[in-house]
Amino acid sequence: MHPVIRTILQRLGLGLITLFVVSLILFSSIEFLPGDFGEAVLGQAALPETVAAFRKELGLDLPIHERYFDWLGGILTGDMGNSFSGRGSSGGSDRSRPVIELLAPRLANTLFLASMAAIISVPLALFLGITAALYRNSFYDRAVNALTLTTISFPEFFVAYLLILGLSSFTKIFPSLANISPDAEFWERVYLTALPALTLTLVIVAHMMRMTRAAIINLMASPYIEMADLKGASKSEIILRHALPNAWAPIVTVIAFNLAYLVVGVVVVEVVFVYPGVGQLMVDAVTTRDVPVVQGCAMIFAATYILLNLFADIISIITNPRLLHPR
Amino acid sequence: MTDIKDLEKAAKEGRLDRREFIRRAGALGLAAPFAASLLTQSVHAAMPKRGGSFVMGSAHGSTTDSLDPGSHENGFMTNTVFAYANQLFETDNTGKLVPELAESFDANKDATQWVIKLRKGVEFHNGKSMTADDVIASLNHHRGEDSKSAGKSLLDPITEMKKTGTHEVTFTLSAGNADFPVILSDYHFAILPNFEGKADWQAGFGTGGYIIDRFEPGVRATFKRNPNYFKAGRAHFDEVEIIALVDTTARQNAVMNQEVHAINRVDPKTVHLLGRNPSLSILEVTGTLHYTFPMRVTQAPFDNYDLRMAVKLSVDREALLSKILLGHGAIGNDHPISLSNPYHNDVMPQRTYDPDKARFHLKKAGMEGVKLDLGTSEAAFSGAVDAALLIKDSASKAGLNVNVVREPKDGYWSNVWNKKAWCACYWGGRPTEDWMFTAAYVAEGNWNDTDWRTGPAADKFNKLVVAARSELDTNKRREMYYECQSLVNDDGGALIPMFANHIHAVSKKVAHDEQVAGNWEYDGSKAIERWWFA
Amino acid sequence: MNDKDDIIPSEGAELADQGYSAAAEVGVIKARRTFAQNVWRGLKSAPPTALFGLTVISIYVIFAVFAPLLAPYGEAEIFPMSYAPWSEEFRFGTDQLGRDVMSRLIYGARNTVGIAFVTTLFAFIIGGGLGITAAINNNGWLDNLLSRSVDVLMAIPSLIFALILLSMFGANTLNLIIIIAVLDSTRVFRIARAVSLNVVVMDYVEAARLRGEKMFWILYREILPNIMPPLVAEFGLRFCFVFLTIAALSFLGVGIQPPTADWGSMVRETAGLIQFAEYDFTAAMTPMLPAAAIALLTVAVNFVVDWFLHKSSGLKD
Hints:
The complex is a heterotrimer of chains A (about 325), B (about 525) and C (about 325). Chain A is mainly alpha-helical. Chain A has 15 helices and no strands.
C-alpha cells in the first residue's frame, strides 16, 4: 500500500478513537457539573417537582452508562439525538428539536466566517512571512514583526472593540452587529461579517507569518541553500525555489492549527459581534446542561481538528520526498 | 401633492422624512426654518400612527428558548409572547389591571369563585375563533402532576375550572384571592388555540397583534402585523424584529450606530454618556425590580435576631445606590414592596447606615469577630460582585468581618441561592403585595429564600397575608400590608438595600405614551404593541 | 551547566600559580566566563528590540515584586468617589467602585503576571517532563499512551473545556492555574517530544543508557540541556497565550476571585467605555491602560524570544 494512503487510513482510525474518547470525557464532565437541565433552565424559578418532571421526561433519572450508550447508539446510526430544550411544559415531547437542526445553520455561519477570515489571513500571512524572510533584519522585517506581534498581544475582545470604534462608530463603514439571518444574500453576509473576520485575521496572522518566516530562515543555513547561493541564484529565487518547498511542513502545521482555531475558538468574537455561530451554541448548551447539543458541537469541533491535522500531515508528506518514498 | 396640509398629513403618517418634508415645503415657497418648526409641531401633536419596521434589542435570549409559554423566563420571550398572544387580563401602561381577552369578571363575596366572560369574535392567527375550550386548555397546560411550567405554582390554588358557556369560564379557588385576575395577567398564561383539548404552542399561533414570521431561539424573532387584531389603537408597526444582544457593549453599540431602535438594560455606569448621543433618548422607569441579600434565618449565625439587625445596619445603602446603580434606583427598606406597588408603606422610618448601632447589636448577640461568608455572582444581578465588596467595606467599619466568595455563574440558582446562608439575589418584583409575599416570604413558599417560616413574627405575618388576600376593603387591606412590611423589615432575613430602575435607550424616531408601565422592562414587555414611529 | 563541567578542573587557575602544567594551561583557556560576564556579553550583542523587551520585562518584575511598596493605595481600598477623573491624588482616576486605577494596575502586574508565570511553569514541568519521557520511550506503550491522550485533549476546544472544568471544580486561583497548566501542557508535550526525538538517538545518550544510568538522570543531564533553546523560546510564546487565555476567561466571567486586581477583568469591567470616546476621552482611556499593559508585556516577551531563537539557530548575518 502506498505510504500516504496507509498514513491516512491509520490517522482516520485513530481519529475515530479520539472522537469516542472525547465524547466520553465531555459526557462525564457534564455529569459532574452541578445542576441539570431542569434546574439550569428554570433558574430561580426551579421547584423540586418541576425539576423532577424534567428529569423523568429527559430520562435523566436513568444511570449514566445507559444514557451514554443510548447516545452512542444514535450517533453510530447517524442520529445526533434531540436537544433537551424546546419541549412542551406538559404532554409528550413529540416535537422537540433535533440537534442537527440547531447545529446546521450555526455551523454554516461558523464555516462562513472561518473561510472569510482564512481567505484574508492565509495569503496575507504567507506574503508577509516570505517577504520578511527575504528582507531579513531590514526595517520592513522589523516593522512587520512588531506590528503583527502587537495585534496578537491584544486580547481578542479588545481588538474587536477597537475595530468597532474605528470602523463602525466613527466612520460607519461596517455594522457593529453581525447577526446574519439565514436568508441573507451572499454579499450582504460578506458585508455583515467583515468586522469579525477582520478581528480574527488580526489575531491569527501573526502566528502564521512568524512561522513562515522562521521556517524559511531556519533552512537558510542548510548546505543546499549555500550551494544555490554560490552558484549565483538571486535571493528571491533561493527562497521561493529552494527554501519554501522544504519549509511547507511546519508552515502547513501552523496554518492547520490556526484554521482549527477559527472554527473552534471564536466564542469571544461571537459574543462581541452577536454572531450566531457554534461556539456560542456550545457555551449556552454547557450552561444549560443540554448534553446532546454539547456532544454534537464537541463532535464537530473534534472532527474539524482531526481532519485539519490530517490534511497538514498529508501535505507535509507530499512536499517531502524523503517521507513520500521512505527507505 | 401641492397643498401644505397634504405634506403635513404625509409627515404624520411617516411617508415623508424630515429632509424630504423640508424640500417639498421649500418647493411650495415655505422657508426652511418655518417648515422645520411646522414638522416638529405636527409630528409631536400626532396620534399614534401605523407603519414602519421596528427593531428591538433585547438583553436576553438563549438558544434554549422555546415558544412554550410555560418555559418563558427571560425578557426576550416575554416580549415575544406579548407580541403574538394575549392573556385574560393585562396591566396597562398606568399600572391598572384591565380585561384583555376577558370581557368582564365577577367574584363571589369571599373571592373563592370567579366567573370570567370572554371577549367574542376574537380569532387566532390560524383563523380559529377563541372560546372557553382554548382558555381551559391553555391554563391546563401549566397544571397537573408532571407539568414543567414555571407558572405551575401560581395556578395551584385553582381547584376547579369549568366551561359554563362557549365564552364563559368559572374558576373555583381553594382559598379566597382578591388578586386572582392579576395572576391571570402573568406572561406565562397566554391563551393559545387548543388542539384536541391541548394547548397547541408549537405552531406559534395566538390572538396577538403580531404574527410570528420567524423564531430563531437565542438569535431573533420577526413578526408581521396581524390585520385582524381585536384591540383598537394598538399594534402600530407593520413589522417587528427582536434581536438578542446579550453583551452590554454590543447592545449599546447597536443602538448608538442605529442598528436597532431601542435597547433595555443600559449600563447605569455609562448611561450619562449614552444620553449624549443626539439620536437617542433615555427612558427610565421605576419598577419593582430589587436587589437582595437574603440571610437564611434557620442557619447559624443568621438565626440570631441581633446579628441580622447588625448586618442590616452595617450596610451603606447610599453607597450601594450611588456606586452600583449610579443613582438610577431607589433605596430599599428591607422589604420587597416597591414605591410603584399600591400599598407601599411610606410611614415606616427608613433604615440607614449606622455602624455604632450595628456594633451594639453585634455585642448584644455576643458575636464580635464573627466571620460571615457572602456568596455572590454576576448571575444574581449585574454588579453583584461589586455590591458585595461594598458591603464588606462598610461592614468592616461596624466590626463585622464579611468574606466575599465569588460563585460560578453557572448553576448559581441551584447551588448557592436558597442553599447558602447568605448570598446575593434579585427579585423582578410583582405588581401586587400578595403576589410578592406569596412568591418569596410566606411559610409554605418554595422560593422563601430567607427561610423565615416560624416564630411569633413570621406567624403573624403569614396570618396577615392570608387575611389580606380576601379582604376587599381597601383601607383595612392597606393597614394589613403596612404591618406585613414592617414585620419583614424588622424580624425577617431579607436585606434589601435597593430598587433598580429599568433603563432603556430609545431612538428619537420612536414615540410612546407619556406614562410607561414599570411592571416589566419595555413598557411592561408590551412596547411592541404600544409604541409607534413618530 | 552541562556534563563538561565535571571534566574541567575548576581549580585550574590556582594550579597556574604553582608553575606550568598542561592541565593548567588547558584549564585557563577553558575557564568559563562567569555568569555575569556571559549575560553582559549577550546583552552587548542584543538588538535594540531585545533590549527594549528585557527592559520592559524587568520593570514588570520590579512592579510585581514590590507592588505593595510602589502602589499609592491598597489593592481593594475603596474611596467615596467612583469614576474620579485623572488627578494628582488618583493618577489614572478611580474605577466604578472608587478604587485607585493606578494601584490596581500595579497589583495587577503581580497577580496577572505571577499567575501566568506559575501556570506556564507548571505546563512546562508537566508537558516537558512527559514529552521527554515519551521520546525516550519512543514508540513504546508509554509514548503511545501519552501521545494519544494528548491528541484527545487537543481535540476538545480548550477555552470551552476550561470553562467546563472551572465550573466543575470552582473558579478559584489554584484551580485556574492547574486547569490551564494541564490543558496547555499538551502543546508543550508535542514540542518537547519532537525536539527530544532528535536528541535521544545521539551517541552520548546511548552511551549513558549503556552505562546503566537511571531514566531521570538521562532526562535531566543528557537531554534537557540540549533541548533548552527551543523550549525557552516556546516558553515565551506559551506565556503570552496563557496570559491571553486568562484574559479571555475573565471576559467570559470566570477567572480570578475579586477583589484581586487582574488586567483581563479590568479591561472587561470598563471595555464599554471605549464606545464613548467621542464624548469622554479620558474615560475611554481607562480600559486602554490594562489592555496596553497586557500588550506591552507580550510584545516584550516576544521580542526577547525572537532574539533568543535567532541566537540559538546559529545563523550569522
